[in-house]
Design brief:
heterodimer; A: 342 residues; mainly alpha; two-stranded antiparallel ribbon; globular; B: 247 residues; alpha/beta; Rossmann fold; 2 domains; 4-stranded antiparallel beta sheet; 34% helix; 24% strand
């Protein structure tokens, strides 16, 4: 299960601050350990995507297996806005987020009355529809060739202007975006909206009989998740200076599910981020040794699902609990936790 | 005019008639009971009254407003709460969080994304007041799935009470409880009687007959008898249907 909603409702927890601080130092040492700054950019972008996805899967219990569609819509919208509207970073990002949100809202209107396998199958079907449109509308999306020459637009804040053409500069921009999404989602999952999402996951029937209009809430969270995915897609288009239909495909949508589950998105707020690290580091480290890295990651995924469905975060939690039990004796009677205490 | 009224309810699943010409009238402040053998249609009747199923025919009114065919959520928002025979709690939430989820103030903030619930003193105090009423305040922080069966039964009612209903439907509240659990539930129901309009399905006839103002007997999807507990004890239909040894 996910952390109790009684977890700290503070805007920035010590863990969040520590993680962001650590990530801020990455460009200083990443090359010394044989990796490269662009990998950091990828990890941050996929982490944003995974956090947005986990709002659906982990928090609301809604399985979306076609989420690559919204990542792709964001990527294409960013490129198209840049080419056809105005080459301004903020406007292009806004267009990407709004386009992905609209795509999500459109799909949500059709699927939010459904549950379980029917919900999952419809997300796949709609994902494939978006992928097919991206491939076939050659004049707009460039078809299988994709959109090329998408620029890394500079950050303009008043008269200040920051160039993002270097990977290190882009890393810090992606880190700022990651921090924004991370803190925003942390706040959201501890808010009344986040509580309802978790209640829906636990018992949708009861939520209905308590007077909550469940389907609009499910539609809202799907739309929000799609918008965050679109934001990540826009950053990805900027990072790789192109947008391809491949990111909308079913197997690409499967990556985000694998990352979230392996990391432990079902039991931890941090699970999706852990999963992204595991996936992309496996790709680069095992991929340097063998082209069959996906085979090994797939095998790892199967083992996780079979023996530790709570993922890496669940494993870490169990190790921590075991260590605590060994080193600290439990109190005779657990006192009632003060409401609102961290 | 009764606070809650059902007239001529008819419900069919395919070709099978499960409810036929059900008439119920529950006055403000009344404790109404529904009894009947297994499979008689009691829970289906509750499901129709609380919006889970739409009746094929008939009319349901609450506070003189027609609520026939409304969704469960809309019916709940009008002040009608129910508990379930098979417990439907938020197992991973603490007892307090279960009740917080039911509070109308929480429902009104369903789309708020920035408010920290865990620091909202009003919500916490409101939930604790409900938990105190059902004897669960000392276990407010315990996850629902870690509570004993009796506590879970009490929490099931607390969640329904948390929505501050005008009428409460209880589906077999003592189901699965032992003698001490039943005694505890009896005390709880006694404390609610008179403060709240209640309609309960219950197999423990001794308990129900000691609490209810009026009881309806459902058999074969129909109300075959209706009256005060004293009247029902002498009803030939009730006697013939072997509904237990009415004390």
């Amino acid at each position: 299960m996910l952390p109790s909603p009684n977890a700290s409702p503070r805007l920035v927890t010590p863990t969040i601050a520590l993680v962001l601080l650590l990530l801020a130092t990455v460009p200083f040492w990443i090359e010394r350990i044989g990796l490269y700054p662009y990998l950091g950019v990828e990890i941050l972008i996929w982490s944003i995507y995974a956090l947005g996805f986990n709002l659906l899967l982990g928090y609301t219990g809604l399985p979306s297996f076609g989420h690559g569609a919204y990542f792709g819509v964001g990527a294409y919208a960013f490129g198209l806005a840049q080419f056809n509207l105005v080459p301004n970073l903020w406007i292009c990002l806004l267009v990407a987020v709004v386009a992905a949100a609209f795509a999500g809202l459109f799909v949500a209107c059709f699927i939010s009355h459904r549950r379980g396998i029917y919900y999952a199958l419809m997300t796949i079907a709609f994902g494939q529809v978006f992928w097919f449109i991206a491939i076939k509308t050659h004049s707009v999306t460039g078809g299988e060739d994709g959109l090329l020459k998408i620029a890394r637009l500079p950050v303009e804040v008043g008269v200040a202007r920051f160039d993002l053409s270097s990977n290190v500069a882009l890393y810090y921009f992606a880190l700022a975006a990651f921090a924004l999404v991370l803190i925003g989602l942390w706040r959201l999952v501890n808010s009344p909206f986040g509580r309802v999402l978790q209640a829906i996951r636990q018992n949708e029937t009861r939520v209905t009989f308590l007077g909550y209009a469940v389907w609009p809430i499910k539609a809202a969270v799907f739309t929000l998740s799609a918008a965050i995915s679109g934001f990540a897609g826009a950053l990805f288009a900027m990072a790789q200076t192109s947008a391809f239909p491949d990111v909308m495909s079913l197997h690409h949508s499967g990556y985000i599910v694998m990352m979230t589950l392996v990391g432990g998105g079902l039991v931890s707020f941090w699970g999706p981020v852990i999963g992204v690290f595991a996936f992309l580091l496996t790709r680069d480290i095992i991929g340097a040794l063998t082209t069959a890295w996906m085979f090994w990651f797939g095998l790892f995924f199967v083992l996780v699902v079979l023996f530790k469905p709570e993922g890496i975060a669940g494993l870490l939690r169990d190790l921590k609990d075991g260590w605590m039990r060994r080193n600290f004796s439990a109190p005779a009677a657990a006192p009632a936790k003060e409401p609102g205490s961290p | 005019m009764a606070l809650f009224e059902a007239r001529g309810l008819h419900m069919r699943f395919g070709r099978r008639v499960v409810l036929e010409r059900i008439d119920l009238a529950i006055e403000q402040g009344m404790f109404a009971g529904i009894i009947g053998p297994n499979g008689a249609g009691k829970t289906t009747c509750f499901n129709v009254l609380t919006g889970r199923f739409r009746p094929n025919r008939g009319k349901i009114t609450f506070a003189e407003e027609d609520i026939t065919g409304l969704t469960p959520a809309k019916i709940a928002r009008k002040g009608i709460a129910r508990s379930f025979q098979i417990m439907t709690l938020f197992d991973e939430y603490s007892a307090r969080d279960n009740v917080i989820q039911a509070l109308p103030e929480m429902r009104a903030m369903a789309y708020h994304m920035g408010h920290a619930v865990a620091r909202d003193r009003f919500l916490i105090d409101a939930a604790d007041e409900v938990l105190d009423g059902v004897g669960l305040l000392a276990r407010a922080h315990v996850r629902a799935k870690d509570l004993s069966y009796g506590d879970r039964r009490a929490l099931e009612i607390a969640v329904a009470l948390g929505s501050r209903p005008r009428i409460l439907f209880l589906d077999e509240p003592t189901s699965g409880l032992g003698a001490s659990g039943r005694a505890r539930l009896r005390t709880l129901l006694e404390s609610l009687k008179g403060k709240l309009t209640i309609c309960a399905i219950e197999h423990d006839l001794a308990l129900l007959f000691s609490l209810a103002d009026r009881v309806s007997v459902i058999q074969w999807g129909q109300v075959i008898a209706e009256g005060t507990p004293a009247e029902l004890r002498s009803d030939p239909w009730v006697r013939r249907s072997n509904l237990g040894k009415l004390q």
